[in-house]
Amino acid sequence: MTDVPEPVRKCANLLKGTRSDTEKFAALFMVTKLMKGKDCNTAGKKLLFEAIGFPFLRKLLVSKDLPNDCPPLVYKSVALSILTGFCQEEELATHKDIIDAIPTLLEIVEQADDEDYEDNLIVVSEAYSCLKSIASYEPGQQALLETGAIPKMSQIYSAQSFQTDEALHLIVLLVNKFGVVSWPEDPTAFHALIQRIALDMETDHTERKYELCHILADILITCRREIVVNSLEGQIWPESLFKGCGDILKAKIGPKQRDPALHLIATTLQVLGIQWAFMDDQKQFFLMLLQLAAIEVRMQMDEKKLETTFKQAELLTCCFVILEQCIEYMATDQLDLEPKEKQTTYTALKGAFNQVMAVLTRVSQDKIRENGNPRDKAFIVATVRILSAWLAQETTAMRPAIYKLLPFMLKIANESFHDLKTWRAGPREGTPPVDILRVMMPALCHFAVEDEARRVLFTHKQDEVLLEAIELYFSIAHWKRPPIPRAERLKRMNEPDPVPTPEQQAQMKEARGAIVALCNILMNFTVLEPKRAEDAPTFANLLKFVVENLPELKDTPENLVIHGNLAVLGLLLLKQQSKKVKQNDFSICRYIQATIRFLWDAYNIDESNDPTALVVSIAYKGVWSDVSELWFLGMQTMCGVLPLVPWLSEFALESGWAEGIVKTLKKVKIGTLPANVKSAYEDFLSQLVDVNADVVAVLKKADALRVCRNHRMMDLGKKLFGD
Questions:
Q1: How many C-beta neighbours within 10 Å does residue 701 have?
Q2: How many structural domains compose the chain?
Q3: How crowded is residue 708: how many other Cβ atoms within 10 Å of its Cβ?
Q4: Which Gene Ontology BP terms does the record give (predicted)?
């Protein structure tokens, strides 16, 4: 203890020698004076902390049983003043006794509006100072989270108590640290807080407006999105944000004001979706936003040094978020634009993406791509992501440059996919990594039909990564209940079956979308690269994956679209690999049964209001736009597979499908059968007759003669009955 200054040592000895609380309290005034002086170093503070003893300080903070020669607030004030000094040292700020005092400190700031405190607001200020110091270190942050400091501080700010900015800064510090777990399941405190800040931001016209934009963005991004979005009824903060941001965008502003506004807008879109940009049922805000983000991207990426561009990574990433949502919305064709608006929008986007391409091309050839800086890597990933979103819609421009850049984009996308795969294989801590490959899939659908792009994809073995991707996303979409340890099975026998959490359901929905896109890409590969599909091990493994997994897929409405996609992908692969298929291979048999179910169930008469009209079945109606082409392609491909694998015809007979088609068509009114449906059924039945001699008798027995006459199925009629 040689480094403890002499006055501090004397004071510590005096404190240890006191015989009553009154004596000790008198000595504390000396402590407060010492701690404000230069002489009181870390060792000195620790010595004083031990000499006073924390139980005594706690007593001054909470006890009603104190000497009555001073008002209780004076005791509190002195204790807090000393605590504030102690809390400036990490070792003391993280001391168990001080951590245990957090509820007491929170109580003091919660009572800031009480009459008791009106005359002595310094007590509240000191309590905030202590909390701020405690919140600077990991143990304090954890304790504040566990004691519910965030909802309590939210309540304080939304009630506009004394020194509420202190509460706000504490909230921001904690939510930045803990993210989504900062908030309880009940969103009341969150809504109240955001409403208060949003209203302040909307009505404030000083520089504070832009500070509040930053704070709002920091808090919004950490919310429990699903809970917040589902509890928005009656909340007016989305409208306050809309008006406040609209005012900023319309005003003459510089980067200091524009950057926080773009940050807030990007975050709000991530939470509330693109519909927020149409809160006034007009398109002006949307178009203004798109223009501003596109111009900002073009300016920040325009022929600067890469280091200069990378310094603007945060702002550019916000612009990318805005542009991605705008592009996706425009792709839905819900936006009614005048020709001039279309031209202006396209020009702005093209200008921005020319610059994105130019920067990414330079990055692909620069050492910055390998520098290992997480911030730089995240920005490169964000740039690949936004370019992928654009290429999903822009299918003709800049092709030679794109093909040159594609290997680098694939490298970044594949790395992000493998990060997700590794994360899912581990304990799954934190938020899952974003899979840029999934974002790139719609663009890859276009690349799959372009010869040069396809050459690049196969040169870089992208087919192997896509096989890995369909395996991973199928494992997410095909949710299984977690296994129960053997020792617990008996006692948990009567428990209801667990269901996926809302978060898992969102992941399953995303995975189903990925599977559809992957099937689309892989179907194009199979059709356009027949030799590869026939010989390459990746395609053999792909067929194996489909035939083994399709029969396992749960028969639910959500799975119908992926059922159809996997069934048809399997048929296309089966056609190419027919020479390798072994007769009565069990997995192929189960796969064909599942495929027949998809093709058979699409049309019926039973669900029609008119007993003579063939209709799309109710189960298929809601997704018919997604599966109708698949159904026709499936029927056509089945016709191509049957001559190559004739024993599959047995399943069409044994299942009753062939007979069922004839019996159904027999009831259909003459002249009402759509030509493409008639063609699909006739070709299929004709093919069955060609490959299996037993089919003729089955179809004749079902009254195929009448069906051929009614629906003018000439080719089938000739095969069954001759001329």
A1: 10
A2: 1
A3: 23
A4: neuron projection development; regulation of neuronal synaptic plasticity
Flag whether 138 is in a domain.
no
Residues 331/351, Cβ–Cβ less than 8 Å: no
Q: Is residue 665 within 8 Å of 707, Cβ to Cβ? A: yes
Distance between CA atoms of 687 and 722, rounded to whole angstroms?
16
Q: What is the DSSP letter of 333?
A: T
What's the burial of 79, exposed, middle or buried (CB within 10 Å: 0-12/13-18/19+)?
A: buried
Give per-10-residue mean pLDDT for the chain (723 aa). Answer: 73 78 76 74 80 81 68 79 85 88 88 64 86 92 93 86 80 93 92 94 92 96 92 96 93 87 97 95 93 95 88 96 96 91 94 95 88 90 96 88 96 96 90 94 96 97 98 94 74 78 90 98 98 97 97 95 98 96 88 97 93 95 96 98 95 95 96 96 97 95 95 94 80
DSSP 616: E
Provide, for the chain, the percentages of residues in helix, strand and coil under a 3-state DSSP scheme, each rounded to the nearest 5: 75, 0, 25
- Dihedral sign, Cα of residue 70, residue 71, residue 76, residue 78: negative
CA distance 286 to 270: 15
β-pairing, 603-604 vs 615-616, is: antiparallel
Q: Which domain holds residue 677?
A: 602-621+642-722
User: Is 623 in contact with 602 (CB distance < 8 Å)?
Assistant: no
Nearest Cα neighbor of 100 from 61, 71, 42 is: 61
* Separation of alpha carbons 167 and 208, rounded Å: 16
What is the distance between the alpha carbons of residues 720 and 693, in angstroms, rounded to a whole number?
A: 11
Q: What is the pLDDT of residue 45?
A: 81
Q: Confirm whether 692 is domain-assigned.
A: yes
Tokens of 575: 């056609």
- Is residue 451 exposed (0-12), middle (13-18) or buried (19+ Cβ within 10 Å)? exposed
Three-state SS for 371?
coil
Rounded Cα–Cα distance for residues 444 and 441 (Å): 5
Strand ranges in 551-645 using DSSP code E only, listed in sequence order:
603-604, 615-616
Q: Three-state SS for 135?
A: coil
Give the three-class secondary structure for 5.
Answer: coil
Task: Judge whether 298 lies within some domain.
Answer: no
Residue labelled with tokens 């998809």: 598
Look up residue 632 and give its amino acid: F
Tokens 């070792």 appear where? 91
Q: Residue 615 in 3-state DSSP? A: strand
- Is-contact 97 54, C-beta < 8 A? yes
Query: 363-374 b/e with 16+ CB inside 10 Å = b?
Result: bbeeebbeeeee
The 10 Å Cβ neighbour count of residue 48 is 25
